[in-house]
Design brief:
The protein is mainly beta and 60 residues long. It has strands spanning 10-11, 18-22, 25-33, 38-47. It is globular and about 40 Å long.
Protein backbone atom coordinates (compact mmCIF):
# COMPACT_ATOMS: atom_id res chain seq x y z
CA UNK A 1 0.00 0.00 0.00
CA UNK A 2 2.87 2.37 0.80
CA UNK A 3 4.32 1.86 -2.68
CA UNK A 4 1.02 2.87 -4.26
CA UNK A 5 0.33 5.80 -1.89
CA UNK A 6 3.74 6.92 -0.55
CA UNK A 7 2.33 10.08 1.06
CA UNK A 8 -0.28 8.11 3.01
CA UNK A 9 1.50 8.60 6.34
CA UNK A 10 1.33 11.71 8.46
CA UNK A 11 4.24 14.15 8.48
CA UNK A 12 6.53 14.25 11.50
CA UNK A 13 6.87 17.78 12.87
CA UNK A 14 10.30 19.41 12.37
CA UNK A 15 11.60 16.37 10.50
CA UNK A 16 11.48 15.27 6.87
CA UNK A 17 9.76 11.98 7.58
CA UNK A 18 6.34 10.41 7.71
CA UNK A 19 4.77 7.73 9.86
CA UNK A 20 2.08 5.08 9.71
CA UNK A 21 0.43 3.34 12.64
CA UNK A 22 -0.23 -0.39 12.41
CA UNK A 23 -1.69 -1.87 15.59
CA UNK A 24 0.76 -0.92 18.37
CA UNK A 25 3.62 -0.20 15.95
CA UNK A 26 4.60 3.10 14.35
CA UNK A 27 6.57 2.90 11.11
CA UNK A 28 8.71 5.96 10.43
CA UNK A 29 9.83 6.39 6.83
CA UNK A 30 11.37 8.93 4.50
CA UNK A 31 10.57 9.49 0.83
CA UNK A 32 13.45 10.00 -1.58
CA UNK A 33 11.95 11.36 -4.78
CA UNK A 34 13.94 12.04 -7.93
CA UNK A 35 12.85 12.64 -11.51
CA UNK A 36 13.49 8.98 -12.30
CA UNK A 37 12.48 7.06 -9.20
CA UNK A 38 10.89 6.94 -5.79
CA UNK A 39 12.51 5.12 -2.89
CA UNK A 40 11.09 4.64 0.56
CA UNK A 41 13.59 4.43 3.40
CA UNK A 42 12.32 2.83 6.61
CA UNK A 43 13.88 4.83 9.44
CA UNK A 44 12.48 2.96 12.42
CA UNK A 45 9.73 0.63 13.55
CA UNK A 46 8.65 1.71 17.01
CA UNK A 47 6.56 -0.21 19.54
CA UNK A 48 4.21 2.50 20.81
CA UNK A 49 3.88 0.77 24.19
CA UNK A 50 7.42 1.95 24.99
CA UNK A 51 8.24 5.25 26.67
CA UNK A 52 8.04 7.97 23.97
CA UNK A 53 10.94 9.80 25.61
CA UNK A 54 13.21 6.97 24.37
CA UNK A 55 12.31 7.53 20.70
CA UNK A 56 15.25 8.87 18.70
CA UNK A 57 14.96 9.31 14.96
CA UNK A 58 18.07 9.46 12.78
CA UNK A 59 19.29 12.89 11.67
CA UNK A 60 18.07 14.24 8.34
Amino acid sequence: MLLIFPELGRKVENFEARYLVKHEYIIFYKLNISSESLTIEILQIWDSRRDPEELILPDN
